[in-house]
Amino acid sequence: MLCWTKAKTSKLTTQDCHKRNLVYETWCITCQRKDEEEIEEMHRGDAGKIKEIKMKMKIHKYVGETSRSIFERTQEHKNDIEALKTSSHMLRHLLDRHENDSWKEVEFGAKVLRFTRSSFERQLLESVLIQENRDHHLLNSRSEYNRC
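RE: above sequence
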């Protein structure tokens, strides 16, 4: 998923998808694009206003941590959708926001937020980042908010 995100967005091109022990973020690119298109439609011709609103736009995102690589972890997230695991944040998002859409067409992006040296640092950072991102549409469950 990271390599796909790098190719699709031309961003984060230096991130290593096989390095371990990290905090990461996944988000719904489909919802982000839809929201950006609505903003551009509503404020046609006012580039400054469009940029300002896009900066404040709420994104449907998930903050996670893993001792494995982002390649392995995002593969597990994809497998969780196919297995219809109720614990899957991506499956919950698909059911909530894309019930009438073809799930194959819904795109999720991924990026590494930071690599860490210890599991304690990783879990603490995840908790802090979840709290910092409360203004967005977080896909994390309540148990992940309070787990650490």
